[in-house]
Amino acid sequence: MSNTKAYAAFSAKEALKPYEFDRRDLHEDDVKIEIAYCGVCHSDIHFAHNDWGMTQYPVVPGHEIIGRVTEVGPGVTRFKEGDLVGVGCMVDSCGECSSCKEDEEQFCEKGMVMTYGSPDPVMGGVTHGGYSTQIVVKDPFVLKVSENLDTKAVAPLLCAGITTYSPLSQWKVGKGQKVGIIGLGGLGHMGVKFAAAMGADVVMITTSPEKGDDARRLGANDVLVSKDPEQMKAHEGTFDFLLNTVPVAHDINPYIPLLKNNKTMVLVGATPVDLHSMGLIFGRKHISGSLIGGIKETQEMLDFCAKHNIVSDVEMIPIQDINTAYDRVMKSDVKYRFVIDMSSLKS
User: Fold this and answer.
1) What residues form DSSP beta bridges with 85?
2) Residue 110, Cβ neighbours under 10 Å: how many?
């Protein structure tokens, strides 16, 4: 057992504060990782505040983890001490169901084991995430990270990155397509970067005209202000694909007319939406959803980022500022992801 320092939520109303717990001893196929950086995801806040009604306290959030291997189990051959690696939103699955065999462990029929907040099949209790000094993860759920990228800015790729890359890849976004990214935040800014790197004609769709310059800096060819009826009318029936990254409850009906016939809008925000079927019926248009990606696709995403030099735009914080960061995320006051320098936890 390894004593581990962390920050944890102890109730829905309390601020996160220091916590210590034990990580397991290494099993045959385990990898021990000293955590260097951990991204701050909106899901961390939902979990800490029990917004989804499933949190067991105390919980150590964090599923955008970058670090160095410090030790491996005797059966591990893919990694060695010193390797730069990542851990994303899940750390285990059954490995036997049809979803797992199709490299879609995120849809495991027995339920994926999330990096934090899931029943821990090894230690009992619940899993604890990356707001900590170290983590022990099964070899198949550890990802290789290129040394050529800005390491601290890689961390959000493990959630925000794969959440936006997966639908763009699954719907085969590429050259010759007009693609709209709805919402310019932690997810949206990654969607713009990926769609642009895939060769699409990218339009940032936002309620905030002042975000236009930043959207173009990130790779957008054009900006559509969704509050402007004339602009929305001019773009009707012209989009091959829409990626909706809005993280709060909203009306999606105004976006449906933007799609060409038989085209799709994919939702990646876990939030209520308003929908009237009329917009779908005329034009045989589609609304779909997407979670993260499986381990194979997540590694593919990291390799794509290494090839195209894609990372997140980040603001670094010490762990001691995590509660302030949560407040700012809820106010959309960050461009575009917070990343914790986990060395601050040792001070």
Assistant:
1) 67, 144
2) 12
Beta strand extents in 1-130 (DSSP E only): 2-8, 17-23, 30-40, 65-72, 84-87, 90-92, 113-114
pTM assigned to the model: 0.95
User: If you compute the radius of gyration of the chain from its CA atoms, what whole number of angstroms results?
Assistant: 20
Q: Which CATH number fits domain 161-289: 3.30.1490.20, 3.40.50.1820, 3.30.1120.10, 3.40.50.720?
A: 3.40.50.720
Task: Copy the structure tokens of residue 27.
Answer: 């099993």
CA distances from residue 181 to 69, 265, 278 in whole angstroms, order as listed: 36, 10, 23
Residue range 179-204: mean pLDDT, rounded? 97
The Cβ-side half-sphere exposure at 278, using a 13 Å CA radius, reads: 3
The mean pLDDT of 118-125, rounded to a whole number, is 92
For the chain, where are the alpha helices, taking DSSP H only? Answer: 42-48, 98-101, 151-154, 160-170, 186-197, 212-218, 229-234, 278-281, 295-308, 322-330
User: Would you list the domain boundaries of the chain?
Assistant: 2-158+313-346, 161-289
pLDDT band of 272, cuts 50, 70, 90 = confident
Neighbours of 303 (CB within 10 A): 14
Under 8 Å between Cβ of 243 and 267: no
Q: How far apart are CA 207 and CA 189, in angstroms?
A: 15
**Cα 274 off chain centre by:** 24
Q: Are 226 and 249 in contact (CB under 8 A)?
A: no
CA 170/CA 243 separation, integer angstroms? 12
Between strands 2-8 and 17-23, the pairing is antiparallel
pLDDT tens digits, one per residue of 31-81: 999 999 999 999 999 999 999 899 999 999 999 999 999 999 999 999 999
